[in-house]
Design goal:
Two copies of one chain form a homodimer.
Chain A lengths: L1 E2 L2 E2 L3 E3 L6 E4 L10 E4 L2 H9 L6 H18 L3 H12 L6 H14 L4 H40 L5 E5 L16 H8 L4 E6 L6 H13 L3 E4 L4 H6 L5 E4 L3 E3 L4 E4 L2 H11 L2 E4 L6 E2 L16 H4 E5 L5 E5 L12 E4 L4
Parallel strand pairs in A: 6-7, 6-9, 7-8, 9-12, 10-13
Antiparallel strand pairs in A: 1-2, 3-4, 4-5, 10-11, 11-16, 14-15
Helix pairs in contact in A: 1-2, 2-3, 2-4, 2-5, 3-4, 4-5, 5-6
């Protein structure tokens, strides 16, 4: 998608042909900084420190990490070490392990002197495949938005989204936001209600940033606001992503998704989940089987942002020593 | 209620008998500062700058404001001026105008030389009446909590609350929190899930502060978490306050209340609204008639808290120039 009119992906081959470049997402939304990844360690650091995040982008970065490692040591031992280092960065990321397996399957049969070229080629392919998957999610979903636009006689279609399921979480397009970008690019009048998405504020920071950079009209709201917006007829449809979907169609996504789905049901508002096949976990029968990760309570009691002087700082928003809990996901039961 | 074992109200007569003292709530939860109100202007400033907030406490402060004015000028003109100055501080606060009317009704018939004593006496009475109202809300509600405790065989009763409907919003006890304080004081094991309550964070700051100061076990959660907590069986009942309740029982309360009510309904969790009679607006038939105030969008895009050095600062959490909307309340339809 575009940033101020210039097309970007979240990761791409460097101009020298032997490095990768990324947008440092820890600096968003206050600064756009491009970081060059030149070594295996650079790639591992980018994943571990969340300079890149989102399952597809983590996988793509790991693939480039293997390619960077091959440029240094293309032996079997070098390949094994690269996978070990990268797999340790985010132990629970399914897509990360998938990408490493893909790279090993590609490189193992090759002689060492063909592995660097092979690795960079496969990493590029993994990126292109993700872009194509997301583009097709957009193509699949854009009709939903166009139908609302037709029904409203060309009036603006209001879409509510939660968290960041946009191009910053993938290589390009995003999942939930892909249909919105395609609608916008086709000239369909759209406006996005962006849930700020506490406690990590991915909506207020990342989703608002990427929509704004591409030029898509949007408004940030507190997570508390969606119910009122739907009661007031200000939401035509909800579009969200998912971290894991079970065999029966139950959807685990960022905490708070379930509350918006309840409000959508109560107000007769359409609610869609945009996902690639890879997000479906066929080994789990239903949502009750999904373990809900708890994260650092400090994400609830403290908030990071930009001081008036431009410096980024973290402030406490709760009484010192307060006890907090930080559930990362909830489960939205399939439609009934 | 207690702060570190010492009983407090939110407003009380100063030791000199001709001033009032308040807890400066703009300094909470990071500092407990007592401010003396010695003049009409002090009282007006306390209300306008939100050193005091919550309808009952605003009313009580206005009553003391009239008393302070009488000490300076007990003439009819002085009384009229006091009412004018105080009424202008928060133009939409119904309770403020009610308290001023009470004071005028009390003082108008009195000779000027009896007005100072009369005004301080009536202000104290207004405070005592509020305390008694809230105490009785607690008495009325504590049985709900005790019933859960009995049903659970003495296991901890988990109560979810939204925003701050505690003693800091009233003179003492609070509304939604009054039954919880009474249960706690009787030795019933309780634990409160405190919604942080974006965008002004009254839960994370005020509710967590007052529960902690009195010793009531509690955990701050993001507003997004309540649905998951109820799905997981971690909430026995919800208790909230209300800003305005219509004749048919629809409840306007802090934005996000409706979403929690939907989750309670979906999970078979009891949901109660604690309110004094004065909050019922008999002139409105149902919730659709309640205008929903929009506040400064900066409350969504910026966050105030304490820097590691102890200084209070405001940080931006959204991209510069982002558009945001800030709906203050939503309407929860009466139970069906």
């Amino acid at each position: 998608m575009n940033i101020d009119g210039k097309p970007y992906r979240t990761i791409w081959l460097g101009a020298d042909g032997v490095s990768a470049e990324i947008i440092d997402q820890t600096k968003l939304p206050f600064a756009l900084e491009i970081v060059a990844l030149c070594t295996l360690e650079d790639a591992a650091h980018a994943i571990a420190s969340m300079q890149v995040r989102g399952a597809p982008l983590i996988g793509a970065t790991a693939a480039y990490g293997v390619a960077l490692a091959m440029a240094d040591d293309a032996s079997d031992a070098g390949l094994a070490r690269a996978c070990e280092v990268l797999a340790a960065t985010r132990p629970t990321a399914v897509n990360l392990r998938w990408a490493l397996d893909e790279m090993v399957a590609e490189l193992q049969p090759l002689p060492a002197d063909a592995r660097v070229a092979g690795a960079f080629a496969r990493a590029a392919e993994i990126c292109d495949e993700d872009v194509e998957t997301c583009r097709r999610i957009g193509e699949h979903g854009v009709g939903l938005i166009e139908a609302h636009a037709a029904h409203k006689g060309g009036e603006t279609v209001n879409i509510l989204t939660h968290c960041n399921a946009g191009w910053l979480a993938t290589v390009d397009w995003g999942t939930a936001l892909a249909p919105i970008y395609q609608a916008f690019d086709r000239g369909v009048p759209v406006h996005v209600w962006v849930d700020e998405t506490r406690p990590r504020n991915q909506g207020a920071s990342l989703t608002a940033f990427e929509l704004g950079a591409h030029g898509v009209p949007h408004t940030i709201v507190a997570d508390n606001a969606g119910g009122h917006l739907m009661q007031a007829g200000l939401v035509d449809l909800c579009l969200v992503g998912t971290d894991r979907t079970t065999a029966n169609g139950d959807v685990a996504n960022k905490i708070g998704t379930y509350l918006k789905a309840l409000a959508a049901k109560d107000n007769g508002v359409q609610f869609f989940v945009a996902l690639p096949h890879s997000t479906i976990d066929w080994t789990l029968e239903d949502g009750a089987d999904i373990p809900i990760e708890q994260r650092d309570p400090g994400e609830v009691t403290h908030m990071t942002g930009q001081l008036p002087g431009g410096q980024v700082a973290t402030v406490a928003v709760a009484p010192p020593g307060s006890h907090a809990a930080n559930y990362a996901f909830d489960v939205t039961p399939r439609g009934s």
